Amino acid sequence: MEWIIIIGYSVALAGITFFSIEQLYLALVYRKVNSIKKFSPLDTFPSVTIQLPIYNEKYVVKRLIDCMCQLDYPKDKLEIQVLDDSTDETSEIIAAKVLEWTNHGFEIQHIRRKDRVGYKAGALEYGLQSAKGEFIAIFDADFLPKANFLNETLPAFDDHIGMVQTRWGHINKNFSLLTKLQAFGLNAHFTVEQTGKNAKDVFITFDGTAGIWRKSCIEEAGGWEHDTLTEDLDLSYRAQLKGWKFLYLEQVVAPAELPVLISAVKSQQYRWNKGAAETAKKTAKRLIKSDQPFRVKLHGLMRLFNSSIYLFLVMASTLSIPLLFLKTLNPDISIVVDMTSVFFIGFLGMMFFYWISVKSVGEKASFSYYFSHFPLFLMFSMGMALHNAIAVMEGYLGKKSPFVRTPKFNVKTKSDHWEGNKYLTVKLSPVTILEGLLAFYFLFGAFSGIYLEDFALLFFHLMLAGGFGAVFFLSVKSLIYVPSRK
Fold first, then answer.
1. Is 88 labeled as catalytic in the residue annotation?
2. Is residue 232 among the annotated active site residues?
3. If you average pLDDT over residues 264-289, what whole number do you get?
4. If exposure means fewest CB atoms within 10 Å of the residue's CB, which of 38, 195, 394, 475 is most exposed?
5. Which domain does 219 fall in, by range?
């Protein structure tokens, strides 16, 4: 039994290290490239269809439609599709807004389906069938692109470019510590990871919103499919396997709203991680058999399977406490156990990865910002590990679940009064209870290390206890906290 624990622990740390090494590599690449891309202004204006997939977004849909109609682009070349699957008063709000902007000369359509088959992917595919634009821009309900968005992205297209992705901004980053930590993590993806991969000409991804597609690229790749929860990742790989190139524009920022409650964060993380596992199961074999270069396959597979890091983290953390006692009972295995600690060098790559991302987004006092946010971000990620690992396992095992939208609140700062959000569905789940129990489990591990005078994992166990405790506390708090407008 003891060797099973040792091997499992070692394999888990090796998995974490493997993914961390890629982060280190991308950070080194990012430091050497010029992420600012320049293009000549448009000589002619191609036709563009903007798709806005909407499902019960009464709090933000007005500002979304207003923002789209304020884009600096010729009206006769612009078509707006509001793909409305709503079942509440959102549809009435949309109808009024569509009428208002139609009267101002905009070609804006309120498109309703008979049913919600395929969720977001189904809505996008339904709208694509009647879309007139040569290019398709997609925005989720909480995004507020700047007026020059189309003029900054369309010049980037040449004959081989099928999709251009832009960087997400955060209109409410400073709302709370929770939103600050989300921004900290997302900024790393939208700077170092996307730019680094794009510079090395390996697969990057459409992130579901704030991007623009060539319509023929979507069609040639087979259109939107809804057999995974991450239709964006799925289509990204199918399109690039067809030979299309993607381009990432770090300098173009599309602001959006971050979830302000842990329940909303959890639903978003669940969808992203389970969908990634589903897409990996669907696409990995095809990628391996493709004629893509080895480096493309390697980075592509790592992206498909990177949500597995939560499985490794849960495995390594839970096995680490039995290892403390095994070392005491059997000193002969101490050398083997201690050698596995070498795998923690992978965290150095992770630290460098996030340090480079902090510098890239121009945070003031970046040194103090980094060291005040990275430990908390790491702790929070640890606390989310069980929830996300379950999502990943469900994806690999083929357990299907509906597309759960992330509730929007239409808030930017603490000074904003909240509207009561009727879309929140918060309940005390078995996972939340387990998160609370794990907080005590890792606290026990920390005290055990002190008692046994083995301090190698003390800091690790304290961070795990803090992370799971924080996630448990915020989850329980969501049960009793109901936002209201004063």
1. no
2. yes
3. 96
4. 38
5. 39-260
